[in-house]
């Protein structure tokens, strides 16, 4: 959107009484997501070499866990100072990003060495640190990465407590809750939006880990007692989908006794049920729905990419034979196409939706 | 900047009283007819892909309880039904396009079933090459971008598998390089053809598809450049010549003729990776390793900062 169309939009909103004062001057150009991805990857590459510098040139830091922790926190604090002091400096931001990533690696190393690595303690500590960094660090890329890291650490903490199964479901509820309330947090858009993307990316990964057929902790060499079964997590994901659909229906003014509302929720429940055997369907669809509802094409695109990823990963799921999976997919396909028929002919027939 | 981000940015600075109403007024939030059209497409495509995947999984299972004629009959009937569905619904309707996509995927399942049943001794790459060749006519008449991308993906898989089976008469070490060169040539030619055709053909004018091809071609030439740097004795060295040419062409096309920040950002990332690998290869072998690590880290930060600044300038130019 160029300046002229921005002014035109402002005038339109002003005439409807939706604005306060004059149109704010553009502070900084909006950075497209793919430029941010490029900068984030470059930040990681730089952090790897900075870590190499610490490992080779300042080896004494790595010899002591406390020194690693102290050096790590100092680097994070320094990065924070640079972000604050030079928020519009491209070099400053990149430098701070790389320094902070390196600092976080040192902190993780220190935490891992100081706490009982067979328990949930180090993961809880790392999740807490990242959860504090996500809102605190004034940088979009940093917030995405910290939110993502916090969720992964929390998942591992739950896994080592025997609750791996519910991790994906809990994150699904957080993702749905955050995006559905995005407008309420509009004044904190710069903080909430990147955290939302970080949570969503982590959710896609955690939900996708169901396809490996191995628990995360088993991969890490731990074989603790598991009390939370994967179906519990999928039940929570299905609940998140139902919550999203219900919220969107209420927003559109559809109330529960109405048959079209009941039918819409029944369709969502059927898709949620399919997700118990084909993990990811409900979660991916939920992301697509909230993305479209918010007018956020990037989020909707992420949901579609997640669905494609889940379908292709489903082939490798070890829990079921290919014949059983073919049956689940065929049933899911019939449910989805049946839902489409109901939508077009019963829930939202053409004339009714054109009138709305 | 999108309308959505502009309004959210204003709201953050306290200039908007009701964000939802503002987004609604600006046409960012969907209304009933938008929802209807969107859910129609979403459920149609996800249902079609699920059904096509179900058949592929079923064939891959190689179920012995079902005879070969029953299996052939089933898959052929489904291919025929999907093709008839396309014929009945027509090329303009989304349901017609979905039918054709399903027919193309099921045709691959049919070829796989043939190879599985008769053990023809054919290599796997031949399955994909035959698949691409036999559905080519459908892809041409289909007139829709996603089907072309599916066809190009099948062709890419055929190329990769071909070089796995036939590593070359002279030297096995060249197999990876030859495969990458072939993929680079194929995907770059497809990209050029797409961009040229999209100027005349409206249904090809979707940016996601050429961007995917640019990622595919760019990844191949970047990998070739890395191969040339890391293993320059075995590599042919052609990448030293063609990598800068590719970068120059990408810059000229996507900066001057048809600005596309996505491809430019990908080019920047490629340069950062290649230069970092070059520095690491030559600086990390000396005595002053710590200094080399620090120098390379600073070089990466500097390159990324310059790229970020430049891309923002290009984005700003596009807005004014």
Features of the shown structure:
heterodimer; A: 356 residues; mainly alpha; 16 helices; B: 320 residues
Could you characterize what this model shows?
The complex is a heterodimer of chains A (356) and B (320). Chain A is mainly α. Chain A is built from 16 helices and no strands. The radius of gyration of chain A is 23 Å and the shape is flat. Chain B is mainly α. Helix content of chain B is 80%, strand content 0%. Chain B has helices spanning 3-12, 19-25, 32-61, 68-89, 94-118, 124-142, 145-165, 174-198, 208-230, 238-257, 261-283, 289-319. In chain B, α11 (261-283) packs antiparallel against α12. The radius of gyration of chain B is 25 Å and the shape is globular. Chain B starts with a helix and ends with a helix. The chains are: A mainly alpha (356), B mainly alpha (320). At the A-B interface, α1, α2, α5, α9 and α13 of A face α1, α2, α3, α11 and α12 of B.
Describe the protein's topology.
The complex is a heterodimer of chains A (356) and B (320).
Chain A lengths: L2 H13 L17 H25 L1 H5 L1 H21 L4 H25 L6 H16 L3 H21 L3 H17 L8 H20 L7 H4 L10 H22 L7 H19 L3 H13 L3 H18 L7 H26 L2 H6 L1
Helix pairs in contact in A: 2-5, 4-5, 5-6, 6-7, 7-8, 7-9, 8-9, 8-11, 8-13, 9-14, 11-12, 11-13, 12-15, 13-14
Chain B lengths: L2 H10 L6 H7 L6 H30 L6 H22 L4 H25 L5 H19 L2 H21 L8 H25 L9 H23 L7 H20 L3 H23 L5 H31 L1
């Amino acid at each position: 959107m160029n300046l002229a169309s921005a002014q035109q939009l402002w005038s339109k909103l002003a005439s409807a009484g939706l604005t306060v004062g004059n149109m704010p001057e553009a502070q900084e150009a909006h950075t497209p997501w793919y430029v941010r991805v490029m900068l984030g990857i470059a930040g990681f590459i730089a952090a790897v070499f900075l870590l190499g510098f610490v490992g080779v040139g300042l080896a004494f830091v790595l010899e002591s866990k406390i020194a690693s922790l102290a050096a790590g926190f100092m680097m994070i604090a320094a990065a924070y100072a640079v972000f604050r002091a030079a928020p519009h400096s491209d070099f400053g931001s990149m430098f701070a990003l790389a320094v902070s990533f390196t600092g976080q690696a040192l902190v993780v190393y220190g935490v891992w060495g100081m706490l009982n690595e067979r328990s949930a303690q180090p993961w809880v500590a790392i999740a807490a640190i990242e959860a504090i960094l996500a809102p605190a660090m004034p940088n979009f890329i940093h917030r995405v990465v910290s939110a993502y890291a916090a969720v992964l650490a929390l998942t591992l903490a739950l896994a080592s407590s025997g609750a791996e199964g519910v991790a994906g479901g809990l994150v699904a509820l957080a993702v749905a809750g955050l995006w559905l309330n995005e407008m309420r947090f509009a004044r904190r858009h710069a903080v909430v939006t990147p955290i939302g993307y970080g949570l969503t990316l982590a959710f896609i990964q955690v939900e996708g880990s169901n396809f490996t057929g191995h628990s995360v902790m088993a991969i890490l060499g731990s074989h603790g007692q598991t009390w939370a079964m994967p179906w519990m997590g999928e039940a929570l994901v299905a609940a998140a989908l139902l919550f999203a659909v219900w919220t969107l229906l209420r927003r559109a003014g559809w109330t529960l006794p109405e048959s079209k509302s009941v039918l819409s929720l029944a369709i969502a429940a059927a898709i949620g049920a399919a997700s118990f055997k084909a993990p990811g369907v409900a979660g991916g669809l939920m992301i697509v729905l909230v993305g479209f509802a918010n007018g956020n094409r990037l989020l909707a695109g992420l949901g579609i990419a997640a669905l494609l990823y889940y379908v292709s990963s489903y082939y490798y799921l070890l829990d079921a034979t290919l014949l059983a999976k073919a049956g689940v997919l065929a049933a899911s396909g019939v449910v989805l196409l049946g839902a489409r028929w109901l939508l077009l002919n019963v829930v939202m027939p053409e004339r009714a939706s054109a009138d709305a | 900047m999108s309308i959505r981000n502009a309004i959210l940015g204003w709201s953050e600075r306290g200039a908007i009283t009701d964000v939802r109403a503002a987004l609604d007024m600006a046409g960012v939030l969907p209304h009933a007819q938008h929802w209807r059209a969107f859910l129609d497409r979403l459920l149609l495509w996800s249902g079609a892909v699920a059904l096509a995947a179900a058949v592929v999984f079923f064939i891959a299972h190689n179920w012995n309880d079902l005879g070969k004629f029953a299996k052939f009959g089933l898959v052929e009937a489904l291919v025929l039904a999907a093709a008839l569905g396309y014929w009945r619904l027509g090329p303009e309707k989304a349901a017609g396009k979905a039918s054709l996509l399903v027919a193309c995927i099921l045709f691959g399942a049919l070829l796989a079933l043939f190879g599985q049943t008769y053990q023809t001794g054919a290599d796997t790459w031949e399955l994909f090459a035959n698949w691409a060749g036999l559905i080519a006519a459908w892809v041409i008449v289909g007139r829709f971008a996603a089907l072309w991308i599916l066809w190009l993906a099948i062709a890419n898989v055929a190329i990769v598998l071909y070089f796995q089976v036939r590593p070359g008469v002279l030297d096995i070490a060249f197999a990876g390089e030859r495969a990458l060169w072939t993929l680079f040539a194929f995907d770059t030619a497809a990209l050029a053809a797409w961009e040229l055709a999209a100027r005349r053909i409206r249904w090809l004018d979707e940016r996601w598809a050429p961007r995917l091809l640019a990622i595919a071609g760019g990844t191949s030439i970047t990998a070739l450049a890395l191969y040339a740097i890391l293993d320059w004795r075995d590599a042919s060295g052609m990448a030293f010549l063609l990598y800068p040419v590719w970068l120059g062409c990408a810059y000229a096309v996507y900066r001057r003729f048809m600005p596309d920040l996505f491809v430019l950002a990908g080019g920047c990332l490629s340069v950062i990776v290649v230069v970092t690998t070059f520095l690491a290869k030559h600086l990390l072998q000396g005595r002053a390793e710590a200094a080399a690590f620090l120098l390379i880290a600073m070089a990466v930060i500097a390159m990324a900062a310059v790229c970020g600044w430049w891309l923002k300038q290009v984005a700003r130019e596009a807005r004014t």
